[in-house]
Amino acid sequence: MMKYVVLSCASALLFACTTTSKPETRLQKLNDVGVVALFDDTLPVKYVGTNKKTNKEMSANISTWSLNQSVAAEIQNSLKDKNKKVFELNVDPVVIKTGKETGAQLKDIYLGNRYQALQEYLGTEAEKQGAKYLFVIHPATHESYTNYRAGFGFFCQSTTNVKGDLQGYTLLRAQLWNVKTKELEATVNITPEDLAFKTGKTCAEALKLGPEKVATLYKEQMMDLAKKSADLVLIRTGLQN
After folding, report:
1. What is the greatest pairwise CA distance in the chain?
2. Which of 12, 71, 91, 119 has the most CB atoms around it within 10 Å of its CB?
3. How far are the Cα atoms of 35, 120, 147 from residue 113, in angstroms, in the given order?
4. What is the residue-averaged pLDDT of the chain?
């Protein structure tokens, strides 16, 4: 009987020694996170008609909306609720604007990243400011939405038989970087299929209002869209239920 007990204990110890612990989830290992949103201070308002002559593209100034701060704050607050150290990355707006403009002007990029210089700047700043991970949320084009301007905006398309319905939309990409290894941990694309809202205005009605009036009328819905975008980014990167 004693021999059986000793063998049983030995087996239990062997099993305990060979049992491996589960690897940490992305959320568990995430900490010291810098967050930065890189949207423009203008909101595109685009109308696509039956021919090129009826196409119109305008923009509204939304510099007073603090859109970037709102998106970044939503990410920060959610991660703080999970007891994570997180902060908004401090960046030079002139460097950001120049980097975006320079990257957009580059043509025929077959290899590499047209925004590589901007990416390196953000990585350097993140390291300086003590971040181990960096969340970058920025406008992004998508092959399925070639008529849409990247970022947040308004879009309306009419045909001969359809007047069209002005909609507010989201077209962005979020990237989570490991600052030390410079490796991309996760990337998420959000398109109008994921998040958009209808205004109930036909293209003709919205066009008469002008871009500034359109932006003013639907500011609350657009800011709510920005909040929902941040939440969806966290869900799709596995950082929120």
Report:
1. 95
2. 71
3. 21, 11, 22
4. 87
Contact status, residue 197 vs residue 168, Cβ threshold 8 Å:
yes
Find, among 134, 109, 106, the residue nearest to 120 by Cα.
Answer: 134
CB 144 within 8 A of CB 96: no
Q: Quick check: helix, strand or coil at residue 163?
A: coil
- Quote the crossing angle between the two packed helices 67-80 and 219-236, to the nearest 10°: 40
Which of 15-19, 35-39, 72-76, 208-212 has the weakest average pLDDT? 15-19
Terminal Cα distance for the chain, rounded: 51
C-alpha to C-alpha distance for 214 and 199, rounded to whole angstroms: 10
Q: How far is CA 238 from CA 102, 127, 188, 191, 234, in A?
A: 33, 24, 11, 18, 6
- 142 residue type, one letter: H
Give 20's DSSP letter.
Answer: P
> For position 172, what pLDDT does the model report?
96
Sign of torsion, CA 157 53 149 94? negative
User: At residue 55, what are phi and psi to the nearest 5 degrees?
Assistant: -75, 135
7-16, 41-50, 172-181: segment of lowest average pLDDT: 7-16
Whole-model pTM: value is 0.85
35-87: per-residue pLDDT in tens? 999 999 999 999 998 777 778 999 999 999 999 999 999 999 999 999 999 99
Predicted pLDDT at 2: 47
CA dihedral 220, 221, 226, 230 (to 10 degrees): 110
